[in-house]
Each structure stands twice: as structure tokens, then as C-alpha cells.
Design a protein that fits this description.
Helix content: 40-55%
Mean pLDDT: 84
Radius of gyration: 22 Å
CATH superfamily of the largest domain: Hypothetical protein
Distance between the termini: 21 Å
CATH architecture of the largest domain: 2-Layer Sandwich
Largest sheet: 7 strands, mixed
Strand content: 15-25%
Number of domains: 2
Number of helices: 9
Low-confidence stretches: none
Order of helices and strands: HEEEHHEEEHHEHHHH
Number of strands: 7
């Protein structure tokens, strides 16, 4: 899903842009009490990686609890930044009570610096600056492996059947050796396996 589509979907579900920063929006819900806030990129053409998208959608459909997210910052010593590769970009996200902030860049360091900057901009107002508070927090990278497990799931017989157009019963017989694929079926199986291999070769976790 592209960021433009996600922004539109969130706004259709009642999320509103309450702050705009360079390349990023802060969104809050118009009805939900204490709902979580989002900080997400505004780039229209950028595709959001699977793990980050799943995290955003999970947060979009639940209500936040407890104190405002800026209050949480004052009691936080460490943020885990969940990193995920998407093509040549690296996405990083922070999930805290009542806020999910996602940013992208070309390196882990750049993503962390961007997250620090946009959190500072979103939290600070005319009377309070959170720069020193956020600078005191240790941002620790960890890695989202959703894409890895998605590829491994493709090794299942039912996925191969769906991808090749060969019925599952036949696939199971091929796997046990009780029957063998025709020339045309073998070509389809080979193409599917090669495509999976290509994806595995291109996969990068960090």
C-alpha cells in the first residue's frame, strides 16, 4: 500500500491531520477518546513495507489509553526502533502508548535522526521544548522480519497451487511422488520456484 492510499484510508476512518511537518503529518482521531496519534510520511509514491503497514492498521483500529504521548516521553529511557527494508529504503517505527511514529531513510542512522527530529517537532509547542527529553532517550534498532516469513509461507503447497494454477490435490501427489507433473505443469512449477528464489535472493533484512 502506498502512503497516499494509507493517508486517505485513515482520514476516511476519522483520523485528521492536526500538525504538518516537512514530509510528515501528525494525525489524531476526531471521535475516539485518548486515541493513538500517528506520525507518517506524506510521500505519495512510497510503498509502505508489510510489517509497518500492519502495525499502522492495528493501531488505527484501537483506542489509546493512559496519559498523552508527550507525558510518556518524560518517563522513557529507551525506544526500540523497528527497522524494515523496502527496496532501497529503510523504514523505522516507534510504537509507544498513544503514538506510532514511522519514518524512512537510506540508513539506520538517518531513520533514527529523522524520528528524533519529527518527535521533537510534534511534541514541542510555544511553551515547552522536548528536544532535551528526546535527546536523552536511547534509540535502539531492532529488525522486522515479516517479509522473511511471508516468503517462507509461500513454500506451502496451497500457495504453490494458487500461484501455478495447479490444484492442491495434484501438488500433494507430486510432493509424495505418487504421480508426476506433465511438461506444461513442470514448466509452471519451475517458473514459480524460480520466482520465489529470485525474491529470496533479493531479500534484505538490514
Amino acid at each position: 500500500m502506498k502512503t497516499s492510499v494509507l493517508n486517505k484510508l485513515l482520514q476516511e476512518k476519522g483520523w485528521e491531520v492536526i500538525q504538518k511537518h516537512k514530509g510528515y503529518n501528525l494525525l489524531s482521531h476526531s471521535i475516539k477518546n485518548n486515541a493513538a496519534c500517528f506520525v507518517i510520511p506524506t510521500t505519495n509514491s512510497e510503498k509502505i513495507p508489510t510489517g509497518t503497514l500492519n502495525a499502522l492498521l492495528r493501531t488505527a483500529y484501537k483506542s489509546g489509553t493512559g496519559s498523552h504521548w508527550t507525558t510518556v516521553l518524560r518517563h522513557t529511557k529507551v525506544f526500540e526502533v523497528v527497522m524494515e527494508k523496502q527496496g532501497k529504503s529503510i523504514w523505522g517505527r516507534i510504537e509507544t502508548p498513544n503514538i506510532l511514529a514511522a519514518a524512512r531513510g537510506t540508513s539506520v542512522e538517518q531513520v533514527i535522526n529523522t524520528l528524533q527530529a519529527i518527535l521533537t517537532s510534534c511534541a514541542s509547542d510555544e511553551t515547552t521544548c522536548y528536544r532535551s527529553v528526546i535527546n536523552a532517550i536511547d534509540f535502539v534498532p531492532v529488525y522486522d522480519t515479516t517479509a522473511v516469513w511471508d516468503l517462507f509461507r509461500q513454500l506451502k503447497a496451497n500457495h504453490i497451487a494458487g500461484h501455478t494454477g495447479i490444484d492442491l490435490e495434484s501438488i500433494n501427489r507430486f510432493m509424495t511422488g505418487s504421480t508426476f507433473p506433465s511438461v506444461e505443469q513442470a514448466e509452471r512449477l519451475e517458473a514459480s520456484i524460480h520466482e520465489l528464489g529470485r525474491q529470496l535472493m533479493q531479500l534484505s533484512i538490514r
